[in-house]
Amino acid sequence: MKTTMIVARRELRTNLFKPSSLISVLVFIVLLVGGMIVMNYFTHSEADSPDVTIGTPADSELSTALEAASTDVEVEIREVSSEAEARSLIEEGDIDGYVTGEPATPTVLVAPGEGERVIELATALSQRAALAAQIEDLGGDMASISQAVATAAPNVVLTSDEEAEIDGKNLFFAMVALGVLLFTLITGGATLGMGVVEEKSSRVVEILLATIRPSQLLAGKIIGIGASLLIQLALYAAAILITGSVLGMLDGVEMASPPYLIQLLAWAVIGYLIYALLWGSLSATVSRQEDIGAITTPMTFLSLGAFYLSIFLVPNSPDATATLVLSQVPFFAPFMIPMRQALGGIETWEIALGYTLSIAMIGVLLWLGATIYKRAILHSGGRMKLSEALRRTP
Fold it and tell me: Is the dihedral of CA 364, 367, 372, 373 positive or negative?
């Protein structure tokens, strides 16, 4: 164990403090923070912008009447001093139309081919005024009738307590978290694979294996690189949480709570161990840096496939058989289960089963990876076939 930790410390220092790693972490944090700021800006811009902006004369009763007539659109009323000013504002696109006159017979000024919503609101205003006049002629009270209509609503009974819609904030938070996890897995796997091949091609590994067992060397590299990635993950998480808290993006986001973050960290560790054990052991079958793509490409596609399935399949088909089955497949579980937790569509026993199967897979890959690594690490020449590494006598 002591020998393994010596290797782990070496890998930790090498991968955490080298300039390329520091620059990569800084750039990724800037991208995360910048992306959240841009997302927050456009989200609030869309939320704050009115559906239609209407100009009315100053001190006109049309302002209140138009707001009352708008039921499915957000209306902003701007006081305009004259019709000439209104024409200028319409041409510049500052307002959608200009309404004057009495509520019963309003006059609408709009640009040719535009201002449909202004016309619709003015029409609703005119009809509302006409209805009020008819009710008053019949001896009714328009204010009481309007209040009665506004408060009338059916009694809605749900068939279950499940949420009818997906919480957008939770979904966004889960996608960002899984995106960071994907980046970490690919970075860690590629770093581990390149390190294994570099030591093998330079024959440094032959010197190392004179004092350390192959399984200890592989374990030390996985632990050291994993520790550096864990520190980077902590920095990314801090950047997301601090930025989200400052911008108010985490208000009401249940998935930003400590219990979920702890589980997300657990899945990050499990996912890293699964992919790293397979990535590192398969990289030992390659003897040259030029051939590492034969390992990196399929492993990258596997992790990308798990990520994209989680962000597209889970929200669109949360109860589909494919979603339920893939949630228990160890290579997909680190992505699928956190996404299902974020959307609130997973049972506790499914989470427990996912943990159990994934940890069991780590045990299998630990034995399998160590076997492939020690049989292939000293192999020179062309790439060793996986079948040869499995049946070869060490």
Answer: positive
